[in-house]
Specification:
Layout lengths: L44 H21 L7 H14 L3 E7 L3 E7 L13 E2 L6 H7 L3 E3 L6 H4 L2 H6 L3 E8 L5 E9 L8 H21 L4
Antiparallel strand pairs: 1-2, 1-6, 2-3, 4-5, 5-6
Length: 216
């Protein structure tokens, strides 16, 4: 299959300078300079070889279903609805291709003072790789509450404090990617189940859309 996330629609576009999300030690302080979209990283050859069959299977299934691997209005709307329901600044529909590819994206306006992200990110950054591996939802009401999840490039570079993600699993068993929401503010533990259910429901909506309707 010839489709891949080097499509020009998926490369970070020129945008007005943006300021970074507030970190946990910067509340009330002036926000710092923008953080550029994370560039793709090349992993060890052995790891690439292990991932190659899964990646080829993912591309084959997406092609058979007629799902484009470029930015989509439909997926952007689903990402926006999920983020709005959760009350989060950012929402993503994320296909795991050569890079994490955000075919659906909701984020603050360019002049908001928050980080403006691109449409791709390295496969080993963020928490979505963990969701892919565990094949079930990952609720992090406060990423700093667990040492395992606090030491993450996204935490350090962007200042994310809460993350909720769920996998996109086809009936064949192939995991296509994830849906997730992120925010610079932590959430009460009492809200974790409700927010987890929102992203799980959003994931089901995305899979229903993938399997039943053409994607714009």
């Amino acid at each position: 299959m010839s489709q891949h996330p080097s499509d020009p629609h998926l490369t970070p576009q020129a945008a007005p300078p943006a300021l970074s999300l507030p970190r946990r030690d910067m509340r009330g302080a002036a926000r710092g300079p923008s953080v550029p979209p994370v560039a793709a990283a090349t992993g060890p050859q052995a790891q690439q070889a292990q991932q190659a069959p899964e990646l080829a299977q993912r591309y084959e299934l997406l092609a058979r279903l007629g799902v484009p691997t470029v930015a989509s209005e439909d997926f952007d709307e689903l990402a926006r609805d999920m983020a709005t329901r959760a009350g989060f600044l950012y929402g993503f529909v994320n296909l795991f291709l050569e890079e994490q590819t955000f075919v659906g994206l909701h984020q603050p306006p360019a002049d908001s003072g928050y980080v403006i992200v691109g449409r791709t990110m390295s496969r080993d950054h963020g928490w979505c790789p963990e969701v892919m591996a565990r094949r079930k939802a990952l609720p992090l009401h406060d990423v700093h509450a667990s040492p395992r999840f606090s030491g993450n490039h996204v935490v350090d570079a962007v200042g994310i404090r809460s993350y909720f993600g769920a996998p996109l699993i086809h009936d064949s068993g192939t995991v296509l990617g994830t849906v997730c929401v992120i925010d610079p503010e932590k959430r009460p533990l009492s809200e974790a189940r409700r927010l987890r259910d929102i992203v799980i429901d959003a994931g089901a909506q995305v899979m229903d859309h993938i399997t039943r309707a053409p994607v714009r």
